[in-house]
UniProtKB/TrEMBL annotation:
This is Urate oxidase N-terminal domain-containing protein. SUPFAM superfamilies: Cytochrome c (SSF46626). The chain crosses the membrane at residues 12-32, 93-113, 119-140, 152-173, 179-199, 256-276, 283-301. Coiled coil: none annotated.
Length: 397
């Protein structure tokens, strides 16, 4: 019953995380588009009122006129009916941490720890997990506080830091666990940017405007810096959110480098859209991103298996399945913590094994399965399955 309830918790929190993430990312993308599409106000009276830029838009059968004030309107009161974009960010982060707890902390033995990488107790793994998230934010925040206005150098240092953390995480956790922690670390930076800087800075500016005091522009500058960082973090984090479905990426022997290349590709593609909103169309950016992905596809292509030797009998493969796979991939799994077969894949009879032969060969050869090698499959057994599949994956003995 406990595993069944955890499955429901996983489903509902994951659903909430997806909904909140869509809302946050949608709002972020919209405001980046708005900010980079602004034109100088055409009406001189608007400029006198403090309008920095404006945008006319059409959507859903209506027309919209957006105006931006850098430090609030001049010579008129600021409306009390302000819309704040914050709960989307907070809900995304909180639900993400809920997912982290349900999948990677409660299920640390299965999803976070790989004894072939580092032998950890669940408590130690969870402690390291939390420490990485906290330390990542602290280091990033200190950097940003001390490098306002030095954006080029700051971006370079942040990238090196993220890649260093990415590499270190792969030396501690399972490959899947390492990937999700890179995403969680960046997601924590993004949400903390909103909570500690963007919203408090905006509130201070609102209070100054309403008291009739000179408005300090620094909170707006800092908020802009953090907001820009968030928009470039978005595509890498989105990739990491879906990466657990694609073990060919994180189960690669150089999975940390694969992740780094894909993050760079995401940033290049995002930069194309940011500049496009400004009227600058630079096709080399998405072309470079696509080229990096194509290069990965070529370099990561599975090696050809030599199937010219003795024929591997299905009985041999079936024995490996029974010893290493069926404890989880069964109608009623016997492995603790599994109430149903992962992804509904059952491997209890020849028909089921034949149905999933290609996926079995891929995931076993990559090292992704069994999870954390909990059932201690050997390199020879992995090779045997690869050869069996290359020879036609016959289930006839």
């Amino acid at each position: 019953m406990e595993a069944y309830l955890l499955d429901w918790a996983n489903l509902l929190v994951r659903w909430l995380h997806l909904i909140a993430g869509i809302a946050w990312i949608g709002a972020s993308f919209y405001f980046v588009m708005l900010d980079t599409s602004l034109k100088a106000p055409k009406n001189p009276e608007d400029a006198k009122r403090g309008v920095f830029g404006e945008l006319w838009a059409v959507h859903g059968g209506g027309f919209y006129h957006s105006q931006k004030y850098l430090t609030g309107p001049k010579h008129e009161p600021l409306s009390h009916d302000l819309h704040w974009s914050k709960w989307e960010a907070y809900t995304t982060w909180l639900s993400g941490m809920g997912m982290m707890a349900i999948v990677y902390w409660i299920g640390a033995s299965s999803y976070l720890i790989d004894s072939q990488v580092m032998a950890l107790s669940p408590a130690a793994a969870i402690g390291i997990s939390i420490a990485f998230l906290v330390a990542g934010w602290v280091f990033y925040d200190v950097l940003c506080r001390n490098m306002v206005g030095r954006d080029g150098l700051l971006v370079a240092i942040v990238f090196v830091f993220v890649m260093a953390a990415n590499y270190l995480l792969h030396q501690v956790f399972s490959a899947r666990g390492a990937y999700i922690h890179v995403g969680a670390m960046i997601g924590t930076m993004m949400a903390a940017n909103v909570f500690f800087h963007i919203i408090p800075g905006q509130k201070r500016m609102v209070e100054q405007i309403r008291r009739g005091e000179p408005v300090d522009a620094k909170p707006g500058i800092v908020g802009k810096q953090r907001s820009v960082h968030n928009t470039y973090f978005t595509l890498p984090v989105l990739f990491i959110m879906i990466s657990n479905h694609y073990p060919m990426t994180y189960a690669n022997p150089n999975g940390w480098l694969v992740l780094g290349v894909l993050m760079v590709a995401g940033v290049l593609i995002r930069q194309f859209f940011v500049l496009r909103h400004r009227g600058q169309v630079k096709w080399w950016l998405p072309a470079a991103g696509a080229a990096l992905i194509l290069l990965l596809m070529v370099l990561m292509a599975p090696r050809q298996v030599d199937a010219s030797g003795d024929k591997v009998s299905f009985a041999t493969v079936r024995q490996v399945m029974d010893q290493r796979c069926v404890s989880c991939h069964a109608e009623k799994p016997s492995y603790e913590g599994f109430v149903q077969a992962p992804k509904g894949v059952m491997l209890e009879n020849p028909e089921q094994i034949a149905q999933h032969a290609a996926k079995i060969a891929e995931t076993v050869a990559s090292g992704y399965m069994p999870l954390g090698n909990l059932t201690h499959i050997t390199a020879q057994e992995r090779e045997t399955i690869a050869i069996w599949h290359a020879q036609g994956a016959s289930t006839a003995n």
